Amino acid sequence: MSKTNASLMKRREAAVPRGVGQIHPIFAESAKNATVTDVEGREFIDFAGGIAVLNTGHLHPKIVAAVQEQLTKLTHTCFQVLAYEPYVELCEKVAAKVPGDFAKKTLLVTTGSEAVENAVKIARAATGRAGVIAFTGGYHGRTMMTLGLTGKVVPYSAGMGLMPGGIFRAQYPCALHGVSTDDAIASIERIFKNDAEPRDIAAIIIEPVQGEGGFYVAPKDFMLRLRALCDQHGILLIADEVQTGAGRTGTFFAMEQMGVAADLTTFAKSIAGGFPVAGVCGKAEYMDAIAPGGLGGTYAGSPIACAAALAVIDVFEQENLLERCKVVGERLVSGLKAIQTKHKNIGEVRALGAMIAMELCEGGDVHKPNAALTGQIVAKAREKGLILLSCGTYGNVLRVLVPLTAEDALLDRGLAIIAECFDELA
């Protein structure tokens, strides 16, 4: 009996806990660049990229070759037992790309949540303080500490009780929803007045462009003032670049466009083209605050993932993917704005590089989020062969994270499907 999506979904429901969500009832069999083929042989255009993991596309031949070569050497020793050069080389190359004119060191781990957890550990050790300020709409992971930092309860921490203490929430600036830079800075000052003294705050963590929160871009003037505020009070600034990093926004790290450098930067997702590696890169003096044995993990910085990540960095340089990112972003934004002119339900199209979102609302009123239409568009697009994702605090944002290596013709096909969906549903 041949496999079907329906039969596999039935097996999944019996074997996998319901807390592991699944956006599309599809089982992938194979993939190439910006397309995925399911177990029934149907091909889909991939505008999701494994949630911002495949900036270099599915199975890029240079990344596959690097992994295959590493497989002939070794797959694991645990870096803390027997070291290997790819780990050190990746740390060096990431440090060279992370913004900041200061000596840096890099820690490798396995997931984005781990990276954020370790950034907080480092900040606490470096400052001797415990508190952390995060932002409304922020997403930083699903582990206990990162759930506390994540600014959305349902579905991430629903039913789990209160998350770790010592975390305070400031407003993320968003002109579309009436939160100015002044408002956001004032919300931090209110924390200092009402909840915790600055000398109790180890770090402020922020996504330069919010991921799950809706792809809102932090204004430069806000970042400048945030950096000054951190410097004034001896607070470390953590840039969570798990989703924005590895070239998604048109620079290798989004903070390059923000006018300031963070003290610590987290990275993961697309850095290794589909292989699990993540990390923290920051000022050497802060990174060295924890004694030997306080950082690391059994699989942290695996040789296979390091080989993949080094190949990703090479591909970005050899294929000029940062420039390609800008071209992809401009082409998609232009197409989506053309759709917007016909449909009042699209409140805003926004982007930084190829990190692109459409916010859907009722009749053009941005204060009336239209999650229902967003879900319908995602489902209808799937029927037509396009994989899309939604996000946002109210579930009313469509996001595009297509591989930067996608051909123009494929981008145009995706845009045409989105246009058809809006014509039929909105």
Automatic annotation (TrEMBL):
Coiled coil: which residue ranges? Answer: none
Which InterPro entries did the record assign? 4NH2But_aminotransferase_bac, Aminotrans_3, Aminotrans_3_PPA_site, Class-III_PLP-dep_AT, PyrdxlP-dep_Trfase, PyrdxlP-dep_Trfase_major, PyrdxlP-dep_Trfase_small
Q: Which UniProt keywords apply?
A: Aminotransferase, Pyridoxal phosphate, Transferase
Superkingdom classification of source: Bacteria
Q: Which SUPFAM superfamilies match?
A: PLP-dependent transferases (SSF53383)
List, separated by semicolons, the cofactors it needs.
Answer: pyridoxal 5'-phosphate
Family, similarity comment = Belongs to the class-III pyridoxal-phosphate-dependent aminotransferase family.
What name goes with this protein?
A: 5-aminovalerate transaminase
Q: What is the species of this protein?
A: Pseudomonas cuatrocienegasensis
